[in-house]
Design brief:
Two copies of one chain form a homodimer.
Chain A (H helix, E strand, L loop, with lengths): L1 H12 L4 H12 L8 H13 L3 E6 L5 E5 L1 H12 L10 H8 L5 H32 L8 H28 L6
Antiparallel strand pairs in A: 1-2
Helix pairs in contact in A: 1-4, 2-3, 6-7
Chain A binds a DNA duplex (30 and 30 nucleotides) through α2 and α3.
DNA sequence: CCCTGACATGTCAGATCTGACATGTCAATG
DNA sequence: CATTGACATGTCAGATCTGACATGTCAGGG
């Protein structure tokens, strides 16, 4: 039931409607943390309203419903944040590919590891740019939340991928060409 | 359908039965890459056999069936490894919590970030130990595959968590106590 | 004023996944 | 020789998730 807590977290940060939540999910969480489409989000918002965790605080045009977190919702989010790391299943296709690299033969392995290192490096560079933008847009001395923390995590994550791939390549160089 | 490819990858490395695959999944993939229980694995093995990707190469005692990858299976695995990174959904509860940290108030945030840093540091240290064991068990000059690569990735991953949590704490220190 | 595209919410069939239940084999220990 | 625990495979109901379908609003450009 992590979807529920993800939504709570996003709504605590900013009151918003399902459409915004869907985009926010796509933009910030989808990459490393959790993904969900609107077809999952809307029904869950209804259930959470029924359970008293959130409530409709405003109704905009085009039938939009702006949700806010209730005190009960805040409690639930905090409880979950402090609860022992659950066993929610991990799912990351990229890492899976990394782990299965050694199922390839040496030439293929080299090609793929190089490609991964290059891609990750590009993504890290791109995120570094995003971070600069965030910093520039934030008034000096102002606390940054969310976006900045998440972006920093992403940057480090891509660097990890890149460095790991390079390390693998180094290991392969020490390896005799023979099968 | 990443489960299928995960199984192919494990089977290319070593021919084994469903029980072994389940444990292998639990041990090496479950943390960062992909998780699946035996109730998912056994039916999938059947389907893959029907699709000609794997085959029963041996039948052990206790009704165990040892599976091996067919040429078609090898092709499929290679095709997938080289295919553009799919959109398989990310799912990582730990990272989700990281991203939602800023939904907490400052004191809570500090407590949690500190706890995360400590836990991650312990896990990194533990994995470093595991890596030493693997190295010790591997004859010098021997190529290491899988286990070594995965462990190295895990170590770096835990270090990333630790360092990121510490960085967050540093950011918080620069922040005025005021709400 | 018409058209396009972003905004906004919803449903649903089918696929996937989880956790519990079910069954039986074999080796080691007492 | 009885018991325990690891080995080994399987099914299934219910929960979750995906991708497609469906519907309508509103702002801006032509």
């Amino acid at each position: 039931m992590s979807l529920r807590h993800a939504l709570l977290g996003l709504l605590v940060d900013t009151e918003q409607n399902g459409y915004d939540l869907t985009r926010r999910f796509e933009q910030t969480l989808s990459g490393h943390a959790w993904s969900a489409g609107h077809s999952q989000i809307y029904p869950e918002l209804k259930r959470m309203t029924a359970d008293g965790l959130i409530e409709v605080v405003d109704e905009g045009s085009r039938g939009s419903k702006v949700y806010g977190v209730t005190p009960a919702g805040r409690d639930e989010l905090r409880r979950w944040m402090f609860s022992p790391p659950g066993e929610a299943p991990a799912r990351n296709e990229f890492v899976l590919r990394l782990f299965l690299l050694s199922s390839l033969d040496l030439p293929d392995l080299r090609v793929l590891a190089e490609r991964m290192a290059r891609t990750s490096d590009e993504q890290a560079t791109e995120l570094a740019g995003t971070i600069k933008e965030i910093e520039a847009a934030t008034p000096a001395g102002q606390p940054h939340g969310y976006a900045r923390f998440a972006a920093e995590f992403g940057r480090r994550w891509f660097e990890l991928q890149r460095d790991w791939a390079r390390w693998v390549l180094g290991e392969l160089d020490d390896r005799p060409e023979a099968d």
